[in-house]
Design a protein that fits this description.
There is one protein chain. The chain is α+β, with helices and mostly antiparallel strands and 105 residues long. The protein has one domain (5-103). The protein is built from 4 helices and 5 strands. It has helices at residues 31-36, 58-61, 67-77, 84-91, and strands spanning 5-10, 13-21, 24-29, 51-53, 99-103. Strands 4-3-2-1-5 form a 5-stranded antiparallel beta sheet. The chain starts with a strand and ends with a strand.
Length: 105
Amino acid sequence: MSGRRANVYFRKRLAGRLCETGRGYVFQYEPAYLARGKPISLSLPLRAEPYESEKLPAFFEGLLPEGWYQEIASKVLKVDPADRFGMLLATCRDCIGAVSIKPAE
C-alpha cells in the first residue's frame, strides 16, 4: 500500500490500521486485536479481511469536525478541509469516545 497510514486505537489499544491508497482507503484490524477486541464501530465488525472503500469510511468521517469548528481547525492546523485523511490525522489523536487516530510511524 502507498500513501499515508494511521494507527487506530480503541481504548488506547492498537485495534487496526487505516491506509490511504491510490484507489481509496483500507482499514484492517490487527490480528492480535481480533482475538480479544471489540469492534470499533457497528459498521466495522471484527473480521480478518480488510475493509476497502473509495471514500473515507463513514465511521471515520463521523469523527471529523464540521461547520465552524472545521473552519477553525483547518486554519489553525493548516490542513485543507477537503483533505479528509489529513483532517483525521490532525484532529483525531484525542477524540471524544474510545477511538483515537494517530499517524503511523
